[in-house]
Amino acid sequence: QKEVEQNSGPLSVPEGAIASLNCTYSDRGSQSFFWYRQYSGKSPELIMFIYSNGDKEDGRFTAQLNKASQYVSLLIRDSQPSDSATYLCAVKGGSYQLTFGKGTKLSVIP
Amino acid sequence: SQTIHQWPATLVQPVGSPLSLECTVEGTSNPNLYWYRQAAGRGLQLLFYSVGIGQISSEVPQNLSASRPQDRQFILSSKKLLLSDSGFYLCAWSTPGGFYGYTFGSGTRLTVV
Fold this sequence. Notes:
The structure holds 2 protein chains of 2 kinds. Chain A is an all-beta fold. Chain A has no helices and 11 strands. The mean pLDDT of chain A is 95.
């Protein structure tokens, strides 16, 4: 059974701080890793994906992958109230199917 | 560019009534298609997925069924809704290899009363 674990939160950070969201996965054969943002009442939206060990930056977002530790994280710099949402981690193994975590709720306090 | 359409946005249905939710994808061919349900405050539950016309795989035995009558059309149905069928239903598509993740439709909020 492939598992993706996330702290459900809520994670509260002050505006302008760095938010750090973490995700661990059980399948060592996992190849691709995705971060989705889901605002309340809306559908998930893909914001980042990463395939290789290390960091990948896109604007205020940085995804970090450590396959040896089976760990992927998302950093949000200069957090804004508009970043308040639930963040879903998803992992792809050898097939086309993604396994989703249950999500971490982030609250950015003005 | 590819787009995914899902309707209706909201639906209130009585217990025992039928259900039909439709999803279509534009701008791509031979997509993988998925139906998910998200209960309030819960994670995503994969209900059905399809890799081609007429090919449906079910993840969870339940009161629902799915069909794929055309390459880019995916339909979720029920003959008789239960209270427990309430939730947020999401359609998604991916390329056959799934390398770029899934793209979700805007979802249908179903309330069974």
